[in-house]
Amino acid sequence: MRHVRHFVEFILLFGLVVNTSADESSERIECFPERESKYSLYSKEACLNRGCEFDDAAQPDMVQCYLKPNYGYILQGAPQQTSSGFQLRLKRNEAVVSMFPNPINNVVLDVQYYTNDILRFKLYDEEKQRYQVPIPLTPSPDRALNPQYNFTYYSNSSRDNIFSFAIKRLVNQATLFDTSLGGLVLNNQFLQIVTRLQSRHVYGFGENNHDTLKHDVNDRKAWGIFARDQGTDEALRLNHYGTHPFYLVMEQLPNTDQTPSGNMHGVLLLNSNAMDYSFTPIPSLTIRTIGGILDFFVFFGPKPEQVIQQYTWLVGHSMLPPYWSLGFHLSRWEYGSLTRMKEIVKRNRDAGVPLDVQHADIDYMNARKTFTIDPVNFAGMKEYFSELNADGVRTVIILDPALFDDQVNYPATIEGIREDVFIKWSNGMGLMKGACWPGEVFFPAVFDTNEVQPWNWEETGSNYTLKCPISTLDDPPYRTKAVFRYDEILNKSGRISQKTLCMSAEQGEIDPNTNKPKYLHYDVHNLYGWSQTKPTFDALRAATGKRGLVLPRSTFVGSGQWSGHWLGDNNATWHEMKRSIIGMIEFNWFGIPFNGADICGYFNTPTEEMCTRWMQVGAFYPFSRNHNNRRTKDQDPAEWSASALKAMISALRIRYTLLPYYYTLFYKAHTQGSTVIRPLFHEYPTDKATLDIFLQFLVGPYLMVAPVTDDGARTVNIYIPSSPWYNFYDGARISVQNQFLSVLAPLDIIPIFLRGGAILPTQGFANNTKLSRQQPFGLIIVVNSDGNAEGDLFYDDARYWTQHGYAFVVAGSRDTGDSGGEMVFNAREGKDGYDLIEWIVSQSWSNGRIGMRGASYSEEDQWYTAREQSAHLSCIKPSVIPTRPMDEVPYDNEAFFTSMSRVVDQF
Predict the structure, then answer these.
(1) Which of 192, 481, 629, 871 is deepest in the core (most CB within 10 A)?
(2) 601-642, pLDDT tens digit by residue?
(3) Where in the chain is the domain with CATH 2.60.40.1760?
(4) Three-state secondary structure readout of 634-702
(5) How far apart are CA 619 and CA 42, in angstroms?
(6) Is-above-0.85 flag for pTM?
(7) Residue 647 CB partners (closer than 8 Å, separation 6+)
(8) Beta strand pairing status for 329-330 and 357-360?
């Protein structure tokens, strides 16, 4: 009966909608989007030849060439119910000329009630099968029985019955997706959809470089999405390494001046072809792609964290990084020799810089060939890495997928040809070659190569040039903003293959129906890095038996299941330091929380003050690595003056003390899909002032960081939201709420604040995580106005115990209480603990001697279990809860820690 009810709702909502806009020109849909390129041959004549309207009076920065209002599709017949929703048949209004070749005349709109909080809708060709993104998604459990949304559709009788639809939030009828402006265009190589936006508070989309976290909807120019090896400090609108067509909107209350309601929604376009997007002040959003289908998911939240949790539930929760990877990483390109690398590692360790990971860039390779080691300059590298590992310092090497065209002496290429793994020309002319570091190279076409970084095309030193054929794939009718931006840089008409392979290349497994590779590079270019991430992740685990770390630059929707990400080749500028915070937040939204920028900048040389401030903010990146380019000066911490070094170490010591808190946040991201780094509005979604703030950010819900990002500044103007906040260093309560405040920030201090009501787990400092994991735990407790605080800790150091001959058993808590009475935590756990001990003793692998350890909740369980007096419980090792954190003696890194526990008093 429920299915029937939904069917009737749609029939009743079918009706007439008439455009009543006072300014129709503001709602025009661009009919010549490529006019952003000076090579587009844009003119009034070209516009009219396309069958569009032209306004002679419109200014050049406004829409001059626009779609006719009756351009679009017309509903055909009644909706057809499906097991997960319903389908509509649409037919193109053929009375209007198509703006691009090969229109799709008959279209299916497939609406799926994916979950109660996720709606999916797809628009695709009814007659011909088209490419769809082949990534795994969490399947819909079944048709949602209690959806928190309405999907309604209309026919506009004033515009030839042109079809449109709207998606609304059920509880307040806020319209989140609305195509009534028109502009639905579906052609073979041009697919466009236009939606009104619920508010002007729009975020997301990536990966590209922009100067504010919130998008400017008054800026009408397009942004491209197409994976490229592109540094981050270029002018705006250049797409970088990743492809993430996912955006967020903070909704506003009706009839207000952009006052946030506290509700947020997210929208994903699951499409891997080249695309672009643009805004208008209406506000509206236009998305254009040149292949595949339009496959959308809408996530209803309603709170910001819930939107991200729903998104990552669908595309895959992020991997849980190894604990050691949360430590400080040191790297640079062009150490030049193993001797020099050793010197830099030693001077930093001798200076007291904590170090967990040492990286090796491509200069360790022999002639820059993947899977080789320079036998002269890096002789003994394997042995040295083993020494570092024994001291608790891990090592990461860079690998490129491009394999040198040496079919005689290079085993990797010889084996690749034998196994038929390389990308081919579509015309049967053999393997496609490109240019990369060693010279002419082949690229693996199957998705199982041990690769962790996409290719890099600059300064290859090769005379080889890849020439792509003239074709509709390499020269599509619409090249997207991702190419138009290069028209300006190259001062000529660019091609979509700029800095990559030909779009006509074939790759993937053989399709038995065609006996040809399944995919065209045109469709899966943006998946290249993604496709090699999981095999690399799996290979690391298979080879070591442990969690590894994969750090690609090229990412796609869902990459975070297996990898982190570094934000690319940035510049040593204060501007880029600011941008890094935007990227860090956005990749938490994209489900890749383990990310960070190259601290102190990759290109050029930073000033000492800049590097000091960058090391301070970088100490709070989820992925904290100092890395720079060849032919630049050293910028590792030990390179700088004693005062700068001290400030850098101070920030890193705070990070190391807080690693249990970070690790717990990553565990929640892994199991719940939460963010690790988040903007203030995630916790204060109804506070309008937070919507534009990004230079101060939250680590989880409880820690606020306000770094200095301006040259010479010794104060920071920060916003203090509601709820009490405390200075991290001295525990002093901030005297204001919901207003801006200037705080002191001398060169050796990064302002940090603790939220009232928080309990943060900490651990004693040591110079790497192998040693810090052996230090005692502590807790920072900051009560709220009611005198309460809460927090949690995820701890999984089983490997240490198993390596020392122990079996490590973890049991879930099942504490309960009467619904009408007082909850009595822990006390019942004592009996469960006793039963667990007796079970362990009965196992064949047990010697009958049991110990217990843990912090916080687990700590109290130990005491209650001990009170049961099991003969087999030999020892307990609780990390105890502090009583008066603000009165106790702090660590020298000024994170509060005590050695007294109120629970001890009970026994």
Answers:
(1) 481
(2) 999 999 999 999 999 999 999 999 999 999 999 999 999 999
(3) 2-315
(4) CCCHHHCCHHHHHHHHHHHHHHHHCHHHHHHHHHHHHHHCCCCEECHHHCCCCCHHHHHCCCCEEECCC
(5) 49
(6) yes
(7) 612, 615, 616, 747, 748, 749
(8) parallel
